[in-house]
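Question (not urgent): is this output format expected?
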Amino acid sequence: MSLCVLFVNVWFVNWINGWRLHVRRENCHWFPLIGGVLGALAVFVLPVPTLRGYWWLPFVIDWGCAPGLMLAAIWYLRRWYASTRRSR
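Got this back:
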């Protein structure tokens, strides 16, 4: 149960910081992959065996995993593309 509580805490902090970073344009930090790993471990430890097939869900709903990493990759690709266009 404590893994679930840790996952929810990290999930909440990551989404608040993602909102602050992209909507309010404030400088803040998020925790990549920590929430997803804690959530996946929590799913495996839960006493309900049918939930074990959903180990991937924390990686999708945590800002520090799929959403945040995809936006970070897009940001770096746009930055790289802009720098290559300037150098021509």
